[in-house]
Specification:
The chain is of the alpha/beta class and 246 residues long. The chain folds into two domains: 9-73 and 204-245, 3-Layer(aba) Sandwich (Rossmann fold), CATH 3.40.50.720; 77-201, 3-Layer(bba) Sandwich (FAD/NAD(P)-binding domain). Helices cover 33% and strands 20% of the residues. It has eight helices and twelve strands. It has helices spanning 9-14, 23-37, 51-59, 91-95, 112-123, 149-161, 208-215, 232-245; strands at residues 67-69, 73-75, 88-90, 104-108, 127-132, 165-168, 171-175, 179-183, 189-193, 196-199, 203-205, 220-222. Strands 3-10-4-5-6 form a five-stranded parallel sheet. Helix 6 links the parallel strand 5 and strand 6. The chain is globular.
Length: 246
Amino acid sequence: MEKEGDLGRKLELASRLPGRKTFKDIISYYTIAFKVLGGKVEVARNSEVTPELIAEMEREDMMPDVFIVATGGSPFIPEVPGVKEKNVVTFVDVVADEAEVGDTVVVVGANIVGCEVALLLAYQGKKVTLVELPGFRAKSDIDGFDVEGNIWIFTKQELHQANISLVAAEKLDKITDESIAFVDSTGNSLSLDTETVVLSLGFTPLNELARYLTSKGKEVYLIGDANKPRKIKDSIYEGFVVVSRI
């Protein structure tokens, strides 16, 4: 059961980032695989699993034996003053083209995703500053480990060619409608003027459904970002392992 109208919505969004077009191939692969399998896999689009739906399944004696929950994650929003200002958006908003972005932009979080978002905005003619924070340093991947050497060399060259400034900070302090402030490694305040702040600080697991089903005594397996935000290959592998065991 898929909440969205199309399968692989986040993969489609990821494919919009520079150098990520091949992510669409994953969607194509599974779409074809489901067709090959025929009626063995039924896909219900625009179908969100809710407590009300679970109750209806119980009344109709249609309750599944097992639930594999892959509800993903939502962009992490830090609790700092000004984070709800109108000029603050998430990297998902930007990639989905659902955010109004000014001519000057500060991207908070400089791991590989933050770098790619910064490049996307720079290619749109924006003046971009990319800010490193602990856990979101340049050269790091979404799982916290370093990206492959060649990938970082290429990305670093692209950042330089796009005139993207890279700034190191230790803590996000506050946001206003015209600026963003950080604390650097020496404890000093660092302020940057900007029209738009883009938060690129990873995902927070969305696992409320899994907790609800578990509380009802159902057999539940939590995979992917709903368990712990990581790479796509980790989610696919977890799904394979779970299905192999049940």
